[in-house]
Amino acid sequence: MIRNCFFAVDLGATSGRTILGSFSEGGLELEEVNRFPNHLIEVGGHFYWDIYALYQYVIDGLKLVAGKQDVKIVSIGIDTWGVDFVCVGKDGHLLRQPYAYRDPQTNGAPEALFSRIPRSKVYKLTGIQIMNFNSLFQLDTLRRNNDSALAAVDKILFIPDALSYMLTGEMVTEYTIASTAQLVNAQTRKLEPELLKAVGLTEEHFGRFVYPGEKVGTLTKEIQKITGLGAVPVIAVAGHDTGSAVAAVPALNPNFAYLSSGTWSLMGIETDAPAITEETEKLNFTNEGGVAGTIRLLKNICGMWLLERCRAGWGETSYPELIAEAETAEPFRSLINPDNALFANPDDMENAIRKYCMDTNQPVPETRGQIVRCIFESLALRYRQVLDDLRGLASQPIETLHVIGGGSRNELLNQFTANAVGIPVVAGPSEATALGNVMMQAMAIGEAADVPGMRKLIHNSIPLKTYQPQNMENWGQAYIHFKNIVS
């Protein structure tokens, strides 16, 4: 029996995978096809992504699927991390490898742009939080540096759109990924001409504007020959991975906040319209595009990047071993602000954490267990801080926090988070991004009706675990201490 399957490409800032999604009597099922690393390339003082390697991994996945006798690929969808982009020349060729958002060239970039257009105006137009690596500031930096690729550019394609182009030959600009760029007007939900002009661009420098669920194109003859597949359509899903992940939050009512937990932690709520006020600007909250006309009012928080960089110096020690060491470490011995600039991209994350603790007159972590516990407790308390801000912005009560993504498998951090925020934490699905990707493809061809129905199906298909708050008095005292440190 041949299964109709959706092919999801899900690329994060440290790794990627391709996944098959299909419907069965038990609900929605996922099957991993291939998994691969996504390495930063450091050369000449800059950091790049290898777009060609990512393309080849996607092709490898499609070839593996084409060899399955019982599978028919109905469509393909691609989601990735945000803000980064590829420059394409007039001949249709990529002009160079794309810069990575952790490249140091954008340090101080917002201030350079704000000398020409006020910060408050940029925020009022876009509703996007100011982060130095937003595409707007990347582009302005390239312009000021007389970058050769930008000088010759015909089209600018965000990473998921660039991969779609490499598969289909069609150039599009997908709404959710474009919204991360700080180039989209939050009200019109289109590219903002005034900001494009500020960085020397026009709408003609971008592909056809599309929204989640629209068709990009079909596999080119070349790709069909390479993979052995036919003219499979490529669908614009929520191209920003967080947009796909939030689409798959298994909530049965709207009174929830979400925490997409991975390299980055993104905490927010869904709204029907952007929230752009003096308060949201002061708190630096962002209004990113979501599926089905929603806005994701959220805050970016440094996430498991902290631990991943420490693990790189520990010989890739397993998570269970590190968590066991953290569990036996002294509680609240040392705390950090996860979003301090010190942790953006240090040569040695462990030393950066020790320096922060030394500079704030705290005990300096000495063991791996102390480092890991410091990271987990600090993340949980930072989540509490952001959730408190969200409660002041939300029009509805926040009764549950849904933790989705790879971090939802971290039981110790989930329990710490419940303890810190004081409401139930529902963990799962860990594969939320792939699920949201698949479900948008399904909605595009009519196999799924709407987002609430989609979420109910996911809720009934995927095992979830709920963590109740514990030891709240001690965590409340730790929160006061945390706020004093980070202030």
From TrEMBL:
UniProt domain Carbohydrate kinase FGGY C-terminal: residue ranges: 257-444
Keywords (A to Z) from UniProt: ATP-binding, Disulfide bond, Kinase, Nucleotide-binding, Rhamnose metabolism, Transferase
GO molecular function terms noted in the UniProt entry: ATP binding; glycerol kinase activity; rhamnulokinase activity
Domain Carbohydrate kinase FGGY N-terminal: 7-245
Sections of the chain in a coiled coil: none
GO cellular component: cytosol
EC number: 2.7.1.5
Domain of life according to the entry: Bacteria
Biological process per Gene Ontology, one example term: glycerol metabolic process
SUPFAM superfamilies reported in the protein's UniProt record: Actin-like ATPase domain
A Pfam cross-reference name: FGGY_N
Family named by the database record: Belongs to the FGGY kinase family.
Record's protein name: Rhamnulokinase
